[in-house]
Every structure is written in structure tokens, then in C-alpha cells.
Amino acid sequence: MPKKKFDWRLKLDTGNSIKFNALLSQTSKYEHVYKGTDDPQMTQMWLGMLEIYKKQEAIAKRLDTLEKKLFSTKSKKRAGLLSDLENY
After folding, report:
1. Run of H or E including 86
2. Distance (Å, rounded) from C-alpha 83 to C-alpha 81?
3. Dihedral (C-alpha) 20, 26, 31, 33: value to the nearest 10 degrees?
4. Taking the C-alpha atoms of 13, 14, 20 and 21 in order, what is their torsion angle to the nearest 10 degrees?
């Protein structure tokens, strides 16, 4: 008799389960890619990592834009902003 597979997803808490399902939903747009591979689950995992990387790049770009705006102000104004941030 074959051993029943353990479904680790059932052990996730509600918040992480929602996040995991959202990531799976995002990778489903690549179904035409991973369905034709020898190991669709592994390919889907890599595509999920690609989605995460794309989000990280977008966040880094936005942060870079904010930093440029913050540090391109006049030095006196900049010092005041930095002081306010440090005191916050």
C-alpha cells in the first residue's frame, strides 16, 4: 500500500496560506510555460521566485526614487528632514 503524501500546505497558518495562494495565482499566468516541462512543479516554483524578484526590483526602484528626492534637496532642508526622520 503506497504511503499517503503529506500536504504541508495544510500546516500553514491562515495568513501564509493566503499569501501562498496569491503567489500560485500569479504564477498561473505562466501555465503555458510550465505545463510543457518535464518537472512542472519545479518550473512553477522558479516562476514564483521570478515574480517575487520582479516585486523586489519594483520596490527597490521606488525606494531609490524616494531617496533621490530626499537627498537632492538643499543641505539645510535635508539636515532638517534627516533629523526629523531620526527623531521619529
Report:
1. helix 75-87
2. 5
3. -110
4. 140
